Amino acid sequence: MPTPATPVDPAFGSAFVVGEALIDIVVDGDSTVEHPGGSPLNVAYGLSRLGVSTTLRAEIGQDPRGRALEEHLAAGGVVLDPASRSADRTSTAVATIQPDRHAEYEFDLSWAPGPIVPPAGVALVHTGSIASVLRPGSDDVLRLFIASQESVLLSFDPNVRPGVTPARDEVLAAVDALAAVAHVVKMSDEDAAWLHPDLSLGAVVDRYLAAGAALVAITRGADGALVATSDDRLSLASLPVEVVDTIGAGDAFMSGLLFALLSRGLAGVVQSGALSRPDLEAVAATALASARVTVSRAGANPPTPSELARLAR
């Protein structure tokens, strides 16, 4: 069982995560194993495991895989929004582990949540990946962000999946619409290269800061991460780690980053665009430590509080 988390100070608020919850069917050579997955589910689980009171709005079926997802979320302390139990069947993603240990995905899913209503009193709303670009649900997500932009910290990770939404121009338009109202925008270097093939990573950062984001982070796998505000820009290296697989690594970075912002009481600071360099360094270090734990073991298995504290010191 996971180490019980010390709850984040309730005064710093709770989190509401919106997006896909699915079963990852991981094919690694002759082995096939099923894990709970989906980028938003992973972020919600990672936040809750670190002590942030977290609710997930997803779509799952009332089938064995859906029950497996519910059990996984309950074990991590995530509250499943009751409206999530609305799908005909639970979505799946076949993740095939390649010789260099990264995963390639094939998806079978749908996303049509309808109106999305966050719980009262949340301090953070996060979305990303397929839920942010796959219609009709992506339109519902955008409406939620527009309605919430003045009241809560908004976080967005495009986590693009060309195998599901291959039309780059349409994906970029959806990403830009959400990024225009989000306070935190995070993506991988692979996301950046696909969305903006003619731009350097630095230029991608500039683009999203200019669009209105207060904090932009680009992960670079084993090369660490680039994090920036309008006042500061840091290039941080990753510490060495033996990689088992990269499933959930970006999501663990995201949940670690958001946990650090909430636990330090920085949600309002980020919204106002006043994050200091020491705070930027601290939250980025926590995010990198969270990802490091996750790649060191199979599946999307984010850190416990004790693991994160040990690495983030």
TrEMBL record:
InterPro entries: Carboh/pur_kinase_PfkB_CS, PfkB_Carbo_kinase, PfkB_dom, Ribokinase-like. Residues 18-305 form the Carbohydrate kinase PfkB domain. Gene3D superfamilies: 3.40.1190.20. Keywords: ATP-binding, Kinase, Nucleotide-binding, Transferase. Belongs to the carbohydrate kinase PfkB family. This is Ribokinase. It comes from Frondihabitans sucicola. The lineage of its organism: Bacteria, Bacillati, Actinomycetota, Actinomycetes, Micrococcales.
